[in-house]
Amino acid sequence: MSEEILVNVTPMETRVAVVENGAIQDIQIERAANRGIVGNIYAGKVVRVLPGMQAAFVDIGTERTGFIHASDIISVDGNGREDRNRHSQNIRDHLYDGKTVVVQVTKDPLGSKGARLTTQLSVSTRYLVLMPQTDHVGVSQLIEDPAERERLQQALAEGLVSEYMEAAGGFILRTAAEGVGVEEIRADLRFLKRLWAAISRRARGPARPELLYEDLPLYLRTIRDLARPSVERILIDSREGFTTLREFCGEYVPEVSGLLEHYSGERPLFDLHGVEDEIQRALGRRVELKSGGYLIIDQTEAMTTIDVNTGSFVGRHNQEETAFRTNMEAATVLARQLRVRNLGGIIIVDFIDMNSQEHRRQVHRTLEKAMQGDPARNKITGVSDLGLVQMTRKRTRESLEQTLCEECPVCRGRGMLKTAESICYEIFREIMRDARAYENATLMVLAAQAVVDRLLDEESANVADLADFIGKTISFRVEPTYSQEHFDIVLL
User: Fold this and answer.
1) Do residues 294 and 306 make contact, with C-beta atoms less than 8 angstroms apart?
2) Most exposed residue of 60, 83, 386, 465, measured as fewest CB within 10 angstroms of its CB?
3) Mean pLDDT of the chain
4) Are residue 431 and residue 375 in the same domain, yes or no?
């Protein structure tokens, strides 16, 4: 498996795409005017406690107040460590209006919701995650070899002793730490030690909402988190960004430095690798399958639904085999679509009905295998008798659609418009109401081109009958700025 990381940098926004075996697997976008804040640490002030929801709103100095639930709050002792003996799910035991609290963002603001917060703080480097309030030491679950897990824990223990950091807190060895030596881990420990000391000093400052620690910008964060051994090269189309990346890699991830390449071609980087086309396809409802089948993906506020259809694929043997082959292909494709579109929360997949229990198991295993490479935490249920699969995928930032699009001002998010015929009949009803209210008046209808065309053509007989019935003249005028559903009736 070969991977490439493509980085497109402009003054307005930064975009990162992960390409695996020629297929786009992940797209991330960060705009200068609206940077994500996941991972940032703030000194916040509680503005409202909601006992009925066991939650509170916290002012962290951003446009919208953040939201914290009692389950995301830990009690600490005099040494700043988690005190499990004082753990409580009652929000009143932790917070009160006006209290100053240090919090970290776990989810960006989504739609009308503010950022999700926690008091369990952590900061990351290439190989380690420091959790200063705990004593837990763990290894990424993606490192499966027991011998390697044990070696890494021993290397960390040696590093903690040599850096005098035995009391620094808890640590998690990240997936990128697989195969690294003690010296690399010691270097990360020294950096975390300095970083946490700086954050702690700032936290003791003025008791007002302010930013204490800001996570790295997208393109540096990508190198820290995504540069795995399977990555063959990292292309960036900005000379300044390339210089910054090279300096960052030289100091923190020297083994990646040789993978960096500055792209200076005339054709845009994302055009050359088909990323622009993939972004456009990812904004559509319909996803074509090679077999001739297709997916329909609908994103709502509560959940995302994915419907699998055979389309033009008719198979060769029988209906069961056709459904099975389509579902197997769909299971792999939809896993990639979830990553590319960054869809999270509750996801319902409506596979084509299959009678064979073995076929259901194979589709389920294929979906689980396809989701294994997804960095977002997910959980998948089995295929039900109705062919439905329920799954959850952790949502930490807005989806691609939410980032790039806004609600349609015409349909208001319905995705459908009333037909010109329906609008004509609404106009007739409105004319009847106005005719009763104003006896001596001439009526003019202002509407969109398609509606006026229908009134003067297919509905012309009905218009004439209506004019005779109310005893008034009815005229029409096209308003180019009106949408199909918009009309006005003016009394002259």
Assistant:
1) no
2) 386
3) 87
4) no
Domain boundary among 193, 213, 233: 213
Q: Are residues 75 and 30 located together in one domain of the fold?
A: no
pTM of the model: 0.74
Burial 391-424, CB ≥16 within 10 A → b, else e: bbbebbbbbbbebeeeeeeeeeeeeeeeebeebb
> 61: closest CA among 239, 171, 209?
209
- pLDDT reported for residue 32: 80
CATH label of the domain that carries residue 436: 3.40.1260.20
Q: How many separate domains does the chain show?
A: 4
Instruction: Work out the average pLDDT over 389-394.
Output: 91
Q: Are residues 334 and 308 in the same domain?
A: yes
Same domain flag for 63 and 209 = yes
Check whether residue 155 and residue 234 sit in a common domain.
no
- Do residues 128 and 189 lie in contact, with contact meaning Cβ atoms separated by under 8 Å? yes
The residue written with tokens 């029409």 in the block is 476
Residue 435 has pLDDT above 80, yes or no: no
- Return d(Cα 403, Cα 395) in angstroms, integer: 14
Strand partners, 67: 57, 116
Q: Could you tell me if residue 409 is inside a domain?
A: no
362 and 386 co-located in one domain: yes
- pLDDT exceeds cutoff 90 at 461: yes
CB atoms within 10 A of CB 333: 21
Instruction: Tell whether 201 is covered by a domain.
Output: yes
Q: Please report the pLDDT score of residue 375 as a whole number.
A: 77
What phi and psi values does residue 332 have, to the nearest 5 degrees?
-75, -45
Specify the pLDDT at position 315.
63
User: Do 190 and 51 fall within a single domain?
Assistant: yes
Residue-number span of the structural domain to which 428 is assigned: 420-491
